């Protein structure tokens, strides 16, 4: 008579059958997912397009391309310098971020914060040293003529832009069409400060810089019958921009979850500008004799401009050529070229 199977063996057999059943079901689910034609995959089976809850991070490539090609412009004594200024002043120097609500919908944010600052120094004759040497010998005068002081111009510019948008997409495999809308805010400002090595004098002639671009100078003489003016500070173009923009474009995935996108937009924006001011130092011979005063003069009134514009960067009230500065308030320049990485 055969002995019944031990209970432990029967229990192990039941666990094995349950495990095999669970593994088989998981395998069927995986095979079903692999056969899902809505998921575009590469040869290794990896999903190429972004999916729900993926994050995309990228940047606009136009300023980088512009800077690269302008670096070979040898017609300027400083190759690429013009492009470098444009690179920091334009709104298309931006970081782009996306969060995918689902495979076809994303919330996107674009942020640009560009600054440019520096100084220009021009050396001029030390007027006081020459005056003091005039009471000495010819050698004293010759030595004083070699002494210089610095006229300094300090400049600063800033441009901030942030937009938030809603993006939809559709397409076939690696090629995807994108469209949507966004709202944005921007601010641009600039200013200059000037420091002169020679103070105005009622005793001796003073050389000072009148144009820091050409390094031109002038002479203030104690007996002048006219006003002599030189700028101490200039507060320029502090403007604000608000707007909405619709966009449409294409995005091609060159590698798994790495894409290059091109887009074009059309939007409405309002641009405002506060009044600017100029502070200057003035020397003149008045009724009470030689006098030096400081004047602050308004240079413009509050301005407001609005209108529709496409991303052409030309002939628009929002183009870089107008007094308020800046591209179309929400534009990426003449169409954006964006490199994006998805995680």
Give structural attributes.
343 residues, alpha+beta, eight-stranded antiparallel beta barrel, two-stranded antiparallel ribbon, disordered N terminus
| Domain count | 1
Number of strands: 13
| Helix-strand makeup class | alpha+beta
General form = elongated
Q: Which radius of gyration do the C-alpha atoms yield?
A: 34 Å
Average residue-wise pLDDT: 77
Largest sheet: 8 strands, antiparallel, barrel
- Reading side by side through the largest sheet, how are the strands ordered? 1-2-3-4-5-8-9-13
State the order of secondary-structure elements, H for helix, E for strand. HEHHEEHHEEEEEEEEEE
- Counting H and I runs of at least 4 residues, what is the number of helices? 5
The helical percent reads 10-25%
Low-confidence stretches: 1-5, 7-11, 17-35, 74-91, 313-334
């Amino acid at each position: 008579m055969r002995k019944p199977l031990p209970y432990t063996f029967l229990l192990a057999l039941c666990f094995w059958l349950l495990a095999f059943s669970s593994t088989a079901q998981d395998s069927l689910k995986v095979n079903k997912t692999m056969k899902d034609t809505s998921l575009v995959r590469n040869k290794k089976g990896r999903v190429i397009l972004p999916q729900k809850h993926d994050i995309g991070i990228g940047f606009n490539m136009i300023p980088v391309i512009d800077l690269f090609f302008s670096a070979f412009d040898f017609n300027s004594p400083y190759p690429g310098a013009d492009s470098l200024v444009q690179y920091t002043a334009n709104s298309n120097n931006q970081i782009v971020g996306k969060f995918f609500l689902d495979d076809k919908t994303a919330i996107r944010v674009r942020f640009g914060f560009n600054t440019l600052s520096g100084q220009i120094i021009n050396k001029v004759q030390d007027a006081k040293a020459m005056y003091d040497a005039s009471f000495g010998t010819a050698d004293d005068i010759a030595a004083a003529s070699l002494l210089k002081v610095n006229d300094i111009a300090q400049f600063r510019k800033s441009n901030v832009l942030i937009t938030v948008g809603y993006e939809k997409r559709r397409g076939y495999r690696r090629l995807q069409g994108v469209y949507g809308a966004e709202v944005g805010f921007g601010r641009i400002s600039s200013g200059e400060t000037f420091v002169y090595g020679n103070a105005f004098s009622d005793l001796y002639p003073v050389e000072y810089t009148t144009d820091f671009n050409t390094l031109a100078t002038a002479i203030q003489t104690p007996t002048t019958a006219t006003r002599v003016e030189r700028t101490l500070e200039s507060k320029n173009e502090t403007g604000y921009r608000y707007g909405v923009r619709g966009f449409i474009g294409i995005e091609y995935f060159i590698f798994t979850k790495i894409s290059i996108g091109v887009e074009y937009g059309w939007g409405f924006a309002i641009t405002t500008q506060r009044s600017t001011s100029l502070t200057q130092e003035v020397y003149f011979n008045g009724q009470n004799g030689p006098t030096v005063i400081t004047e602050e003069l308004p240079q413009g009134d509050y301005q407001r401009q609005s209108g529709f514009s496409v991303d052409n960067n030309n002939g628009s009230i929002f183009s870089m050529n107008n007094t308020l500065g800046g591209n179309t308030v929400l534009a990426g320049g003449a169409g954006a070229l964006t490199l994006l990485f998805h995680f």
